[in-house]
Amino acid sequence: MAVIPVKRKKHLHLLRYPLPTPPELELEKLIAAVPNSIHLSLHRNETSLACAWHLPRAHYLESWGDARAYDGTVSLQQPLIEPLFGGVSAIELLAMLTDGKWTPGRQLVRADAGPRPDSQSRSSYFL
Predict the structure, then answer these.
(1) DSSP result, the chain
(2) How far is CA 54 from the centre of its chain?
(3) Omega of the bond prior to 20 within 30 degrees of 0, cis?
(4) What percent of the chain has pLDDT above 90?
(5) Closest listed residue to residue 63, CA positions, set 46, 79, 85, 81
(6) In a 10 Å sphere around its CB, with 0-12 CB exposed, 13-18 middle and 19+ buried, how is residue 58 labelled?
(7) How far apart are CA 57 and CA 83, in angstroms?
(8) Are 55 and 102 in contact (CB under 8 A)?
(9) 100 with 75: CB under 8 angstroms?
């Protein structure tokens, strides 16, 4: 199978483990064809080795985050421990790639929480 021409300049793997894949897909060659490839993961694996950069991901017990259930219920994720090995969360990495500056996860979650209808800020209510 021929390698598909890649027109991307950057490639980012978040919380995924696409390699190993069926050999006919030649995904490793496709990743290698992209000049800037980043893999965010807890462990080094085949995907990390195929990418130009491997970033240590913070475990979910070390990370801030938020989620919304299908019924609209908001849940906040608060870390139980400080990151042990300098890991970063997916929201911190995406915010850095988007804004070009480093913002801690707690600030990102507080900014996303927004105000509550009763004039008390949701972030001060939860955090």
Answers:
(1) -PPPPP--SEEEEES----S--GGG-HHHHHHHSSEEEEEESS--HHHHHSSEEEEBPPGGG--EEEE-TTS-EEEE--SS--SS--B-HHHHHHHHHHSS---HHHHHHHHH-B-TTSSBHHHHH-
(2) 12
(3) yes
(4) 22
(5) 79
(6) buried
(7) 9
(8) no
(9) no
Q: At residue 34, does pLDDT exceed 50?
A: yes
Per-residue model confidence as pLDDT tens digits over 73-127: 888 899 999 888 889 998 999 899 888 899 999 999 988 776 655 555 555 555 5
pTM of the model as a whole: 0.73
Give CA–CA dist 37/71, Å, rounded.
Answer: 36
Top-confidence residue, 50 or 13: 50
